[in-house]
């Protein structure tokens, strides 16, 4: 594989993501597989840079919108599911993340974008869906041996609710899990008040899908001896 060939594949894949053209994106990847491009190279040099560029285009230049980013993240998830079984060895996941929207919150779009970005970055994600109780977040984290709980809240009252992230923090404290399991939050209320994550007891917050990946990667790195 030459740098020019992988760059061409990456460019074609990003164009498909930008246009939210699923058939074209899958065609680009399948043609690359047919040319014996290593699936590992496709993940790290094509898929991950593609979703990063989509995030940058939305945040920095506002050339893409939330719905485009959502569809792109779903395409990337599908491509990851296609490529992982083709790895030469068992893929090494960065860690397990328990993901869901807070109790009383029924908005799932942002969470799905984060899930797509995490899976594209080789995190194992357990998506609990919407309206998830604090107890279930913690129980699943313990059961799955996860180091991260990610709670999405799209409304101020669900972010500040006593049954939301605050309750997750309380349970982690009561069970002596605060050093082992970190709490990350995200959603519209935190964009309006970047210090809100401290108010609800979270360890960090992610402004968008790829920022969530960076924050979680940083937290996991800090936990390693």
TrEMBL record:
Tell me what this protein is called: Methanogenic corrinoid protein MtbC1
Taxonomically, the superkingdom here is: Bacteria
Organism, scientific name: Geobacter argillaceus
Q: InterPro entries annotated for this entry?
A: Cobalamin-bd (IPR006158), Cobalamin-bd_sf (IPR036724), Met_Synthase/Corrinoid (IPR050554)
Q: Name one Pfam family in it.
A: B12-binding
**Stored SUPFAM superfamilies:** Cobalamin (vitamin B12)-binding domain (SSF52242)
List the GO cellular component terms. cytosol
Q: Which PANTHER family match?
A: METHIONINE SYNTHASE
Please list the GO terms describing molecular function: cobalamin binding; metal ion binding; methionine synthase activity
Q: Which residues form the B12-binding domain?
A: 94-225
């Amino acid at each position: 594989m030459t740098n020019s060939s992988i760059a061409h594949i990456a460019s074609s894949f990003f164009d498909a993501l930008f246009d939210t053209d699923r058939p074209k994106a899958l065609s680009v990847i399948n043609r690359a597989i047919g040319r014996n491009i290593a699936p590992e190279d496709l993940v790290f040099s094509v898929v991950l840079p593609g979703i990063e560029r989509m995030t940058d285009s939305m945040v920095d230049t506002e050339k893409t919108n939330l719905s485009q980013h959502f569809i792109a993240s779903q395409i990337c998830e599908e491509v990851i599911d296609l490529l992982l079984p083709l790895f030469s060895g068992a893929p090494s996941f960065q860690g397990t993340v328990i993901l869901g929207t807070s109790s009383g919150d029924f908005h799932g779009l942002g969470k799905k974008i984060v899930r797509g970005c995490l899976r594209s970055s080789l995190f194992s994600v357990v998506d609990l869906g919407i309206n998830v109780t604090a107890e279930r977040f913690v129980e699943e984290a313990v059961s799955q041996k996860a180091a991260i709980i990610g709670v999405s809240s799209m409304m101020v009252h669900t972010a500040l609710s006593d049954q939301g992230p605050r309750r997750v923090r309380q349970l982690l404290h009561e069970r002596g899990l605060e050093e082992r399991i970190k709490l990350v939050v995200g959603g519209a209320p935190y964009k309006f008040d970047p210090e809100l994550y401290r108010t609800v007891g979270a360890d960090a917050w992610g402004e968008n899908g790829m920022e969530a990946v960076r924050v979680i990667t940083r937290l996991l790195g800090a936990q390693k001896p």
